[in-house]
Amino acid sequence: xxxxxxxxxxxxxxxxxxxxxxxxxxxxxxxxxxxxxxxxxxxxxxxxxxxxxxxxxxxxxxxxxxxxxxxxxxxxxxxxxxxxxxxxxxxxxxxxxxxxxxxxxxxxxxxxxxxxxxxxxxxxxxxxxxxxxxxxxxxxxxxxxxxxxxxxxxxxxxxxxxxxxxxxxxxxxxxxxxxxxxxxxxxxxxxxx
Length: 193
Hints:
The chain is an all-alpha fold. The longest helix has 29 residues, at 114-142. The protein is built from nine helices and no strands. The mean pLDDT is 93.
């Protein structure tokens, strides 16, 4: 692991636990085992470190959903959608630190970036919405999903995904998966032909 990667990892952990105000360049350097000025060889400022963490988390989340959609695009619509959900869920359970950061960003964004963070979250959601809407449109054309408004169904699925995300914060993995099966089956029953 490079020094820059160690700095990012340390900063991510500190941000997840203490938030933006609690994340200092000195503490990041101490975690990595370097002197504080050495951090500046890689990042201009604390804001620069934070922006790197934040942008990386958003892009990883979106890339995961898009790659899943591409990977399963030749499968039946139910399987495509279920695989997208499962891959995102598995990532979120596996990358619990990333999820802590994401929660902190959503609930307690640094004041200097609150509007930008909100706008970026909306942009990611917009891209996910377009992807899902396209899948639902394909499902309607194939006769796998009942006719309707593919944009409205995409909105409903995004709301379901948000609910699943918060369920993950409350339940252990086994209980969550039991609940997921029920939720997913009920959603599918509501949209299938």
